[in-house]
TrEMBL record:
Protein name: Poly-gamma-glutamate biosynthesis protein PgsC
Highest taxon, organism lineage: Bacteria
Signal peptide: none
Organism: Staphylococcus pettenkoferi
Matching InterPro entries: Capsule_biosynth_CapC
Amino acid sequence: MIGSELYFSLFVGIVLSLIFAEKFGISPAGLVVPGYLALIFDQPIMLLSVLVISCITYFIVNHGISRVVILYGRRKFAAMILTGMVMKFIFDLIYPLTPFEMVEMSGIGVVIPGIIANTIQKQGAVITLSTCMLLTCITYVILFFYSFIS
């Protein structure tokens, strides 16, 4: 069941993200982010932890690493992804939240904080997080109704 929900959620999230980005010109923190976050939308602590790790990643890269190393373009994106991965790993060691049935999906979630942090750097925190949560909520509602018909 989790496999079909994963595929459907990512599919719906990508389609909604593309439509939203074309209509309003705002990226909801990457194409795959709303679909992934919809899968953990019913677990507010996990959802909040991803968003907090994303903001911490943004601050570490923009106000820490970029003062020591010249970062732009792909290098900055790679720094965001790697820092997000390290932060998620440290957070999971300190406070493990992943339920047993979600362990196989947790690999996807490792890159999500870096993607969100990269979009925060481009658009700002309020726009990125609000549009991301809006599309995550819509994706979750669609996923909720999908679970009844499948």
